Amino acid sequence: MKFVLLWSDLLFFLLVAICIGGAWWAYRSPQLAASWRQVGASRSGVAAATVLVCFVLVALLDSVHYRERLPAQPGADAGATVQYAVEVKSALDALLSKQKTNTEKTYSAPLATHLFAKESRADGQGRDYPRLKFGGSHLADPALSEADVRERATFGLIAGLSIWGFLAFVIRRYAQPRAPWFAWNALIWTLAGIVVIVSVVLALMPYYHVFGTDKVGNDVLYLTLKSIRTALMIGTLTTLAMLPAALLLGILAGYKGGWIDDLIQYVYTVLNSIPGVLLIAAAILMMQVVIDAHPEWFATAAERADARLLSLCLIMGITSWTGLCRLLRAETLKLRELEFVQAARAFGVSGFSIMARHILPNVMHIVMISVVMDFSGLVLAEAVLSYVGIGVDPSTISFGTMINAARMELAREPMVWWSLISAFCFMFVLVLAANLFADVVRDAFDPRGRAA
Amino acid sequence: MLTYLIRRFLYALPILIGVNLLTFVLFFVVNTPDDMARMQLGAKRVTPEAIEKWKVERGYDKPLLWNAPAPGTDKVTNTIFFEKSLSMFAFEFGQADDGRDILNEIRTRMGPSLAIAIPVFILGLWSAISFALLLVFFRATYLDFAGVVLCVAMMSISSLFYIIGGQWLISKVWHLVPISGLGSGLDATRFLILPVVISVIGGLGGAARWYRTIFLEESNRDYVRTARAKGLSELAVLFRHVLKNAMIPILTGVVVVIPSLFLGSLLIESFFGIPGLGSYTIDAINAQDFAVVRAMVFIGSVLYIVGLWLTDISYTLVDPRIRLS
Predict the structure, then answer these.
(1) Which stretch of DSSP H or E encloses residue A435?
(2) CB–CB of B297 and A282 under 8 A?
(3) What is the CATH number of the domain that holds A329?
(4) Could you identify which of A21, A32, A418, B242 might form a hypothetical disulfide with A212, taking C-beta atoms 3.0 to 4.6 angstroms apart as the criterion?
(5) Domain for residue B259, yes or no?
(6) What is the C-alpha separation between A90 and A95, in angstroms, rounded?
(7) Chain B residues within 8 A of A435 when measuring between CB atoms
(8) How far, in Å, CA of A369 to CA of A47, rounded?
(9) What is the rounded CA–CA span in Å between residue B29 and residue A44?
(10) A–B interface: beta-carbon pairs under 8 A
């Protein structure tokens, strides 16, 4: 086994590390800790954060990539170089290996034992729904599948409830007394939902396609879980890409004024005046040409798809930094005239240090708020861009590519609804959690909101 | 007033030049016409002659900025930059890859786009403001809370879901309106109802929540308290005082988009098969027709700048304290 570190993995791990570091920093600073305490005391904030953490965990699992070692050739001697598979897998693929490898021929409904479309029977006696290769294949008589599903689901439910009971007990007994201000109830009830759903799915997963299969027979549950990483990548890396430019230019324009201000304002008005989708389309088309022209840059297909994902993040970052930049400029203009900045200037502190030490910490709440507020919009935008054909690489599994592949299925008779519905449901939960969390964070960090 | 508008116009010119340069760099420098030709003619097995022929047909065979061997002013004018980029200021966009004139196409497609975009704009604004006023009227009650939750939930649903779900439910299950296409004359309304309703609903959540915050901020002001103190009914306070004063922040966000209504909606038009500018743009992106994309970028930024003007003018109309100078 050889670990592969894709660029997006690296950046994602970096981002998680920044978040953990930021949490530590906030813990040390009494003022920030107070704001976060307000987030922790809010029920919707805690519930949303719990859901988000689950999504992040799935994405982290999916970000540990490796290439499998191929079995040595029988004739080769022991000293021969080790060969690795071309396909890049992730830890999530390893956990879901049954889902990944056991593909069917085409559509099958959730928990089905038979294929969705009729086929000619092997014995030539008319047409029939063939049995699935994987779903319910452990049953001798497929008619029993309903009872089997019920039995397994009940088992999963009981197991889930007992795990949840144990967790709830531990939380109440040991964690709650230490931080009584925290909204533990919200955490416990959100966990109840998550643990029960996950354990029921886990109980059924080894024997059935829980969410059915798509047109080419891929397991829909596997596809949706893989999509989470793409969605989170786009939501977070785009922000990471735009932050340096927005921070630097916004503060510089506000603090220096004069021709620097004019120039920066000019640049962002130009970028702003182009409709976002068109700018992204133009840039992605160009990027596509560059990637196609240089196949030698990428060792595997995964790396090429990764490059496209990153370039999408970068381009979306370039089109979206203007909003934050304008906010930062306005705030810096205000801060520049305040006494503590004037005092620092009177002491002869250099412009750069004033910007870095005095202005930057005082605009961080704006950055924080706009980062969490942008996240949900970016996740939704990915689906739209993929539909337009300027999103992620078509081979990358994402909510957008799933919806795009599935959108004609509602017109089929009978209708194929499961892949669309699972993609939309996962996306809805993710975006809803992000929106709720963003609201709570804004309320906690926005000084205007605190006064009201 | 007039001098102000002229000054704004002169201020807009450098922005348009910037957009123009940006598209020029993106479409001709980052990618040479050779790359484009190779992409259009199909990847690998393409001969240099075919590329040359493709470039000559579209006028991409000239030098980028400076045509040294040409006589006189042709040194500047007989170049890609002059013919393809600068000519956009005169709204000469040339031909699309299918040989049709882009400007002509834009003119004919503007109608269907506006037929959807204008009702969506008016109905959307009206419904979002009414909904927000309703929530503010019942503020700090469970109804308000439920309304905000509804708004957040509606915001969290992908616009694709509204379109796909609406098409499926209304057209396929209930057979109320045709799924897609566009008729002529009055018949067109049958086709337009569904896309308009779906876009209004899709945009309602975010807009209503935003307006609600604006109204709430406004209804905490002193003059509102005075109005209540002198015995005005809550409805009169909301409509005569809060709504009027909240128009200023609402206008900032709304007037800018009015000119861009011409561009239509990418998603709605392509899902409902409406031959407007939105679906034109999507088709161009999918067919990688760079000339059309470039033209749309330029038109889009012109319309945005017009929107900025309109915003400035509308300020003076709603707020007498602001004067253009």
Answers:
(1) helix A418-445
(2) yes
(3) 1.10.3720.10
(4) A418
(5) yes
(6) 9
(7) 152, 155-156
(8) 18
(9) 50
(10) 122
Cβ atoms of residues A171 and A184 within 8 Å: yes
What single-letter DSSP state applies at residue A131? B
Q: How far apart are CA A50 and CA A45, in angstroms?
A: 9
**Residue A267: other Cβ atoms inside 10 A:** 17
| pLDDT value, residue B291 | 83
Q: What is the pLDDT of residue A74?
A: 67
User: Are residue B295 and residue B210 in the same domain, yes or no?
Assistant: yes
What's the first-to-final CA gap in chain A, in angstroms? 57
B258 part of a folded domain: yes
pLDDT at A80 (0 to 100): 64
Q: Cβ distance A399 to A382 under 8 Å?
A: yes
Per the domain annotation, does A269 fall within a domain?
yes
Mutate: best of A264, A288, A289, A401, partner B, most B CBs <10 A: A289
Residues 6+ apart with CB under 8 A from A326: A250, A268
CB-based contact B15 A273, cutoff 8 Å:
yes
Residue A371 lies in a domain: yes
Q: Do B293 and A435 touch (CB under 8 A)?
A: no
Return the residue of B nearest to A288 by Cα: B39
Instruction: Please give the residue range of the domain that contains residue A259.
Output: 230-417
Q: pTM for this one?
A: 0.90
Q: Which domain holds residue B42?
A: 2-90
Task: List the single residue in B with minimal CA-CA distance to A413.
Answer: B172
Contact A8, A233 (CB under 8 A): yes
| Mean pLDDT in residue range B99-117 | 88
Whether the CB-CB separation of A270 and A418 falls below 8 Å is answered with no
Rounded Cα distance between A133 and A352, Å, is 66
Same-domain check for residues B159 and B289: yes
Low-confidence ranges of chain A (pLDDT < 50): 450-452
State how far residue B59 is from chain A, nearest Cα, in angstroms: 20
Helix residue spans in A294-411 (DSSP H): 301-336, 339-346, 351-353, 360-388, 399-406
How far is the C-alpha of A72 from the C-alpha of A354, rounded, in Å? 62
Q: Do B260 and A275 touch (CB under 8 A)?
A: yes
Q: Do residue B66 and residue B159 come from a single domain?
A: no
Domains held by chain A: number: 1
- A282 and B18: CB-CB below 8 Å? no
> Angle at Cα B150 formed by Cα B146 and Cα B151, nearest 5°?
120
**Whole-number mean pLDDT of chain B?**
84
Q: Which residues contact A221 (CB under 8 A, 6 or more apart)?
A: A96, A99, A201, A205, A209, A210, A211, A422
* Phi–psi pair at A231, nearest 5 degrees: -60, -45
Question: Angle of helix A258-273 relative to helix A301-336, nearest 10 degrees?
Answer: 130
From chain A, the residues in CB contact with B167 under 8 A are 410
Picking from B43, B220, B296, the nearest residue to A278 by CB comes out as B296
To the nearest 10°, report the CA torsion of A340, A341, A346, A351. Answer: 150
Q: What's the mean pLDDT in B51-67?
A: 74
Q: Give me A444's structure tokens.
A: 């906690």
